[in-house]
Amino acid sequence: MYESTTTTSSTDVKPQLYGILAEFHDPQTLVEAAAALRKAGYKRWDCYTPFPVHKLDEVMGVKPTILPWVVFGAAFSAVIGAFGLAWFCNAFDYPLNFSGKPYWGMPAHITVAFPAMVLTGVVTSFVTLWILAGLPRFHHPLFTIERFRRATDDGFFIAVEATDPCFSPKNTAELFRDLGAIAVEEVWD
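The structure corresponding to this sequence follows.
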């Protein structure tokens, strides 16, 4: 008479391997390990440090962001749009002749175009930064690792994701140990 239905709860979900986390003693060892990791062909990995480390971006192969170009394009479009709207309103749609002056002049409309440019640039940079950074992100598997809390204080870490084509739990952990990691552990999501 009654059919039983099964429901899956959050306890039925099996954890998946996110990757391997390695801690290094100092920034120099971290930079050397990052260079070796890149040379080994790893693609999906990142470094975490409590302060900026000189040459780390260069060693990791981090490319410049497109954020300035996106903001410039949006701000330039806002200036063109503000001048176009002023021209349309004053010279085309509703022209008024004041003492023989031209219907439209640029200096009078800079006071509208400049704030439009600034406001559009600010909003575009804010929204684009969130999109490029993948925010908001309320959970990250690395936050579950007790040792990783030191990344904001005095820890230097490299995390390799399991989705990397070169990733192998055993080989990657061995590589980190050979590179001088003081701690290597698996990260589960």
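The beta strands are 17-24, 45-48, 156-161, 183-188.
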